[in-house]
Amino acid sequence: MASADRKYLAKDSVQQEISAVYGSHYGMTNWSPGFRNFESELPGNAVPKALRPEAWKQYEVGRTGCQSCHIKCKNVYEIPEGRRKGERGEALEYEAIYCLGTNCGLEDPVAIMEMENLADLYGIDVIALGNTIAFAKDLYSKGIITNAETDGLQLTWENADAQVELIHKTVFREGFGNLIAEGLYSLAKHIGQDAIKYCYHVKGLSRGPHPPGVFALAHAVSSRGADHLRGRSWSVGDNSPEKILTTLVNRHILTDDPVHSIIAGQRATVIADTIGRCKGAVNSWVCAVPLIWQSDLWDGLAELLTAATGLGFKGRDIEDTADRIHAVERAFNIRQGITIEQDGLPQKPEVKQSPEGERQRRVHFQMLRRYYHECGYNPDTGIPLPETLKRLNISEIGERVKKDGPYPLWDGPPLWDLGAYPKGGTKEI
After folding, report:
1. Which domain holds residue 123?
2. Which of 48, 119, 310, 377 lies 20 to 30 Å from 177 when distance is taken between CA atoms?
3. How many domains does one find in the chain?
4. Contact 168, 143 (CB under 8 A)
5. Alpha helix ranges (H) inside 237-354
């Protein structure tokens, strides 16, 4: 099984013709990147030509990948001009391009490469960094913050130089950068006024506002907030080869019910994480599921684990392990005050205040309660039921949650004294 799995990935056209050629920035024309703090989502034909997959090839000087992986989905690029001319970087992915680029109102590929390299050198997540800056730019465009708050930085949508400078300030917690370093949700709370209206987040992480459905529900129930690696594309099978997607549907692993498919997707991704299997090569079920047309989903994963460890795994063991991990994560979140209210639906102000927005929230929470029910959680609170924890052999988790409660509702991390953080250093990179 494991050998056949490796052989398939070595020959799969999706892996070889998309992932190995473009990497994940292929998504710029397939996954509707955000524009100006999610003012809109760009369809493929609206993505600036300079940011399309084929355009990035002119900067590519090589390919690389994770150890022992033959696909090499990461590009090695070289900056052709500007402040960091000649500098090389790796893995210019879709998230970096849209979060630091289009969602911040920028179309300059050289500026995006520069900021991606800075994020890597400083050790900052490009999604959180880019979307927090996009949020700040949105507030600036609306007059909620001005040059007085930004240390004179003109955070207009097109100003790439100011954005680069803000990244440096963020790392050294200097001036307005000290607020950006707090992250999206805390930034909104510090600014006050109407800032929170434009803070599209789930549990402090931002992937933008989406209508009720697979995307919104997957982000809502992710234990760490709006995280695309906890269910989104894995649930619906987008970009999966037709053969795999058809097989998943025929075996009722995926259905047109978002609740059912998200649970299957979450199980697959959590197991992929626990066994060290790549989930990200081409954002398809291929990465999480070994040869689905030869074995049932969980049985196939069990065969891989058995081959790797010599221990006798069964498909049911895999499902229970995934559910156990999710239940423990859920219980931890409950202790932090996260319940159904924090699994909500981010909405733009104009949508939130409309009858359509009310309808969308109603649909979302109906799906959310069904998700809780299917997982064996209390449908009104999201707390794992005692019988569920008993079945998963973790009853003590529920006992601890009950003993230490009730818990205050989560409202983001504590707002620490901004003057208490270490600051300084020199801008040497």
Report:
1. 2-198
2. 48
3. 2
4. no
5. 242-250, 258-275, 285-288, 297-309, 315-335, 349-352
